[in-house]
Design goal:
Elements lengths: L5 H16 L2 H17 L6 H20 L3 H37 L18 H16 L9 H9 L12 H9 L6 H34 L6 H32 L17 H7 L2 H15 L6 H19 L3 H17 L3
């Protein structure tokens, strides 16, 4: 179910109406059921993946916290990470890697048939797998404690406003809001309505209006003058920002109406003065995740210039691949590395 769909315009008022009349003891259970309905409306079969991530990471979080020996702690963390990356890797990258390997062998004159399973990409899997991994990693680092409330943890994983397109919330920020009693006041309703209105203006009236012109230009670029192509690039930059930032604003606004505050995911990135500032203001939750759980564990900038460049390259290449299973995204990530190095902004 998408935020700009007719079904969502029916779904949200019903959820809010029942949510407000329920006692606080039943609100989390209701939100979990609503979140599963929201996700399963697209394809109920993929609810099983959501449940697998939830059950595995809930158990692993408990086991990591209770384990005394470091070997046992690493085992349960490895199980959590491998489960989530296994789900993400299979459903998002299986066909991509098979096709890439087939093309690679074909260049050496080795003709093989690529196994194609027609794997359908589950909506939001890139977001909730990263979110659940951060939970177990934080427990392993002793930066967070596991919750014993399975229902609240399941809601943390499946919370519908940010399930499909983020932001990627940390358990230390979102889970305490789920576990505590919530009160929705007039200020939260006002802020939520403002964010929702802003998001729909960005998503529907700007991004969706610009999209046909951009698609037409990208589909047949040979017949266009350079000025038209340049304008299409500018329009695409507007489209992608308004599409993503608009969706994030709607998610934050809807969550405000439920008494839960989601993090800001965009802070006017196009007004940044350099590439480093841009990434601090664009898709903030993903940039912070890649920094805290990939770049810094690799060594960050602590072991010399060459190692810093290596860590930056791996982070940006994997960040590019996270956006989509295509070599164009890998190239895009490589371009970002070059931009960092060229501007000397480490």
């Amino acid at each position: 179910m998408l935020f700009n769909s007719f079904e969502f315009f029916l779904f949200l008022p019903c959820v809010l109406l029942l949510y407000y009349v329920l006692s606080q003891g039943y609100q989390n259970a209701f939100l979990l059921a609503a979140s599963y309905f929201f996700y399963g409306f697209w394809d109920y079969r993929f609810l099983s993946l959501l449940v697998i991530s939830t059950v595995v990471d809930f158990i692993c979080g408990q086991k990591i916290h209770r384990a005394v020996q470091s070997q046992a702690r690493r085992f349960w963390l490895t199980l959590s990470v491998c489960t989530n990356l296994g789900l993400l890797g299979f459903f998002k990258y299986f066909n991509f890697f098979c096709e890439s390997f087939t093309v690679f062998l074909d260049r050496f004159g080795l003709s093989v048939s690529s196994p194609v399973l027609y794997v359908v990409l589950p909506v939001g899997i890139s977001f909730y797998t990263f979110q659940t991994m951060s939970y177990t990693i934080d427990i392993y680092r002793r930066q967070a404690e596991p919750t014993r409330d399975f229902l609240s943890f399941a809601l943390y994983v499946a919370y519908f406003p940010q399930l499909v397109a983020g932001p990627i919330e940390r358990s230390t920020r979102l889970l305490p809001q789920i576990l505590t009693c919530r009160r929705v006041d007039n200020e939260m309703i006002s802020d939520g309505a403002r964010l929702i209105l802003t998001g729909y203006i960005q998503k529907v009236f700007i991004a969706d209006s610009v999209a046909p012109y951009v698609d037409k230009a990208f589909q047949a670029p040979n017949g266009l003058a350079w000025s038209a192509l340049l304008m299409s690039l500018y329009l695409f930059s507007i489209q992608i920002y308004c599409d993503f930032a608009g969706y994030s604003n709607i998610a934050r606004g809807v969550s405000k109406l439920l008494g839960i505050d989601l993090m800001v995911n965009f802070r006017q990135p196009y007004l940044s003065t350099n590439i480093t500032a841009f990434w601090r203001h664009w898709h903030i939750s993903l940039s912070a995740w890649l920094k805290d759980y990939l770049y810094i564990p690799l060594g960050g900038n602590r072991h010399g210039r060459l190692n810093t460049y290596r860590n930056l390259m791996l982070t940006m290449l994997l960040g590019g691949l996270w956006h989509g299973a295509s070599w164009t995204f890998v190239v895009w990530g490589g371009c970002m590395v070059y931009t960092f190095l060229f501007t000397n902004s480490l």
